[in-house]
Each structure stands twice: as C-alpha cells, then as structure tokens.
Known about the structure:
The protein contains 12 helices and 2 strands. It is mostly helical.
Amino acid sequence: MAIESMLLCSALGGVLISAVSQSAFVGLLGAILIGAIVGFVISYASFIGKADLYLTNIALNLAAAGGTLFVMFLTTGEKSTTAVAIKSMTLPSINIPIIENIPILGRILSGHNILTYAAFFVTFLVYFFIYKTRLGLRVRSVGENPKAAESVGISVTKIRFIAFTLSGALAGIGGAYLSMGYLSAFTRYMAAGRGYIGLAASNISAGSPFGSLAAAIMFGTADAAANSLQMTDAITEFVMMIPYAVTILGLVILSIIRNERKKKIIQRAMVKAQNNTDN
C-alpha cells in the first residue's frame, strides 16, 4: 500500500542526485537506495515499533505527498516542478535494430526508455527469486503463514525486512522512470495514483510476477490511450479517469471469476461427498 510514497520519494531523490552528480546512472542508484530506505522504514515502524502496518503505509503515503514538495521547495525554491531550477539527467531510450524500421510494430516495440525494457527483465528475476531460491521460498512461507515459518526456525522479522526493502528498491526503479524517463523533472504528486494501480495489478494476478506484468501492460495501455485522447476534443476529466476505471473494472471482473471458481469447487466437493455417502 505504500508504493505511492516509494515512487514519489525515489522520483525526487533520483532527480536531485542526478543533478548533483551529473550522472543519470548515479541518479538511478540513488532512487533505488531511497526506495529501499522507505521500505526499511515501513518494516521498522511496523515490525519493531509494532505500529499497524496498514495505517503506517497510509501515513507514509500522505507524508510523502507533502514531504516531497517541502524538500523540492528547500532545494530548488519551486513548488510545482524542478524543471526550471535544476537540470536533471535522463535515462536513455533504446532503438532496437531492424524492429525499429517495421511500420507500426517498430513504434510499439522500439524507442522506449531503457527502464521499460528493464521492467520485463526484472519480472524474470523476481520470478526466479521467489520460486527458485531458498530465500524466495522463505519469503513466500512467511507471507502465507508466518507462524508455521517461525515454527521451523525462520526469522519472520528478518524475512519481512528483506522483503520490504527489496520491494522498496524495485519501486525506486519505477520512481526513477517517472522523473528521469517518462519526464525529465520531478513534478508535484507525479505518481498520480500509479502506486495503487500497481497494487491492483498485483492483486489481480494473486502475486504472480508474470500475471502482474500482464495486468500492468493492460493498465499501461489504458493510460496511454488516455494520454492520446487528451489531444482530441474528448472531455478531459472523463479521459483522465480511464486508467482508474479500467483498474476498477479489472478488479470487479476478477472478483466475479474467483467467486465462480469457488462455487464450482464447492459444488464438486459436495457432489463428491454425496457420491461417497451413497456408496
């Protein structure tokens, strides 16, 4: 639930660090570090300080919304964007040979920011980490049943710290993309609910990395469509709500599908039990 704060903090941090270092790569590393720190803070407040996890996340989202503006004003003297006061470095875009020359398909697959392509690679890394490594198995076990994990000697608090910190680092990459790829500056509230859309993508896929990627592509397509429609005579307010409406619609459809599956499973179990009773 705190992805929004991770995105905002890392987006601003990436811009400021890249401007000081005059290196987009250093800015990216800074954004990742800041995202990881936010994840660590959540872990400490919730699992050491015993604060309610959900309230901590909500409080951090609210704090980041105002805090990033405060830091931006202190460092640049601006309250809306860093574009005027400082020069942020931007991460490069990549043109894929041969594919870039293909009509229509070339514009879809080529010429995007390097972090766009990195997102697909990171999906494979996350899948490998969660399902193919010992630490990933422990993360899943703690997430599904912490008491059972603790009973076999796994440090639940340690695993939670690791999971939240890694999640913050990944969100930091997203924040860097917003301010050093999608735009070349930090603007107020630039996350614009994308953290909650990411949360919805994870929920729709039940935490599956590849399922989350597919849901993210769907939501990204809706966002791109909204941006394109803003250039037409369509009502701006209606166009801006498209990505969020698609998110809600996706969650509703998923809920219906899951409920139908549960009904079928229950019906099969009842039929099987009835057959056993008759026999």
